[in-house]
UniProtKB/TrEMBL annotation:
InterPro entries: VanZ-like. This is VanZ family protein. NCBIfam families: vanZ_1. Keywords: Membrane, Transmembrane, Transmembrane helix. The keyword Disulfide bond does not apply. Residues 26-183 form the VanZ-like domain. The keyword Lipoprotein does not apply.
Length: 187
């Protein structure tokens, strides 16, 4: 009887590991799908979405809504006003909306692959892949996906391919791996 109970416990644990691995694998494919969906947007559509975000950022800064974001309890009104004035001055004097749009677009590129690398690492860990191989496999898939993403963009109207974007994407993946392993060691 005791042997049968232990066997059932092992089977249940095995099923949980398999379900977790399948869930994380699906999450990987969803992440890749999200990346390629964003790349499939025409240049004008993609630019329109990012310009709306830039306009929202500029509006928030210009209307001094930084108070609501940062919270008056954490910072003095004088500090928040000073911060919002500095941000508004940077936008108005140093940084054009097009430059801010470019920065947001490049950050989004890196962030997509940052998330992908973390999901990939979690997936490989769920299948008990060795730590060094998790890094290698995850970064290889991130780099391959970044190259394929840029190649795919060659055929989308209004889009172009850029080696710089591949580097940004891969850097996002490296940062994701560094953070993943920093937090993985703690737990």
């Amino acid at each position: 009887m005791l042997g049968e109970s232990r066997y059932n416990s092992l089977v249940i644990r095995g099923l949980i590991v398999i379900k977790k691995g399948i869930f994380l694998s699906l999450l990987c494919f969803l992440s890749l799908g999200f990346i390629f969906f964003n790349s499939s947007q025409t240049g004008s559509s993609s630019n329109e979405r990012s310009h709306k975000l830039v306009d929202n950022v500029v509006t928030v800064i210009n209307e001094s809504k930084v108070n609501n974001i940062l919270g008056k309890n954490l910072f003095s009104d004088e500090l928040v006003d000073n911060l919002s004035d500095k941000l508004a001055n940077k936008l108005n004097n140093k940084l054009t909306k097009d430059e801010l749009n470019l920065i947001i677009r490049k950050c989004a590129h890196g962030f997509e692959f940052f998330l992908l690398s973390i999901v990939l690492a979690l997936t490989f860990c769920s299948f008990h892949v060795k730590k060094n191989n998790v890094i290698i496999y995850s970064l290889f898939i991130v780099l391959l996906s970044a190259v394929l993403d840029e190649f795919f963009q060659l055929y989308i109207p209004g889009r172009n391919s850029s080696v710089i974007d591949v580097v940004i994407d891969f850097c996002g993946g490296i940062i994701g791996m560094l953070l993943f392993h920093a937090f993985k060691r703690k737990y």
